[in-house]
Amino acid sequence: MPIGTDGHTVKDSTCDGQLLFSNELLQTIFNSLSAHIAILDESGTILETNAAWKNFSLANGLPEDFDFRQMNYLNVCETASGENVEESRAVAQGIRAVMHGEITEFLHDYPCHSPEGPRWFYMRVVLMHKNGPKRVIVSHEDITQLKLTQEALTENQHHLNDKNQSLKEANVALKVLLHQREQDKADMEKKFLVNVKTLIMPYIDKLKQERLNERQSTLVNIVGDHLTDIISPMVQNFSNAGVMLTPQEMQVASLVKDGKTTAEIAEILFVAEATVSFHRKNLRNKLGIRNRQANLRSFLLSMSQ
């Protein structure tokens, strides 16, 4: 189907009979295609180009009356020089492979940048399956937007990969910091316990040996008992279980564990018995003691083990 070269028409059979399409109609269709198309003969000589091919050449500096016909496209590719020489020769080899029937089509995308910006084209070479002289169709489709989109997606993927790597590194660093924090916390608790045992408790013991009245003796004993509670497993178990007690709730818990009654605790802490009962109720709620028959003191003693 050499367009505009030998004056032939193409027949299209339909159920209503035969319709004859003139070269003028075929040329109109040929020129309406967006791809830049050239038709080559068996030697690689250009027989015809469409309007898109001519318009592209005109936009890139060729004169308006420039005629591509009779130019050998293969020779242009094989004698090309400059930075794209290898690519041009690969194109020529691909066209020859199609001509010789070694492959059914040759596909190739390539950059063709201009001063106005980057451009890419997609090249497709196929053999015209038609009786008569061998003809090859070479088409170039502008795929710049597709390439720019692909590059943007690739760049975004690299950006996401970098962020993912940064998050992984930050996660590792955070784990190290948390581990160090736990170690520092354990060291601080150990130092605190040692200081209470070695720097405070000896003086409490000396005070107990002094001649104190009953009330003074009771207060000293309470201070000693509370300090013992602070360094005892019960307080640590409260912390480990996530139970947060107020200072007075801690005082009530310690005295309940020691077997003191509500009245005795009220007298020791200088508060009303109703206040002690209120704290006892809060302790049961915070410790999750739902059964009214469960003994608060027994529970607190179990946490001191």
Which properties best describe this structure?
alpha+beta; Beta-Lactamase; single chain; 305 residues; Arc Repressor Mutant, subunit A; PAS-like_dom_sf; 3 domains
Description:
The chain is α+β, with helices and mostly antiparallel strands and 305 residues long. The chain has three domains: 133 residues, PAS domain (Beta-Lactamase), CATH 3.30.450; 67 residues; 94 residues, Winged helix-like DNA-binding domain superfamily/Winged helix DNA-binding domain (Arc Repressor Mutant, subunit A). It is built from eleven helices and seven strands. It has a five-stranded antiparallel beta sheet with strand order 4-3-7-6-5, sandwiched between helices. Strands 1-2 form a two-stranded antiparallel sheet. A hairpin with a 5-residue loop joins strand 3 and strand 4. Helix 5 packs antiparallel against helix 6, helix 7 packs across helix 11 and helix 8 packs across helix 10. It is rod-shaped and about 125 Å long. The N and C termini lie far apart (99 Å). This is Regulatory protein. Keywords: DNA-binding, Transcription, Transcription regulation. It holds the Pfam family PAS_4. GO terms for molecular function: DNA binding. InterPro entries: PAS, PAS-like_dom_sf, PAS_4, Sig_transdc_resp-reg_C-effctor, Tscrpt_reg_LuxR_C, WH-like_DNA-bd_sf.
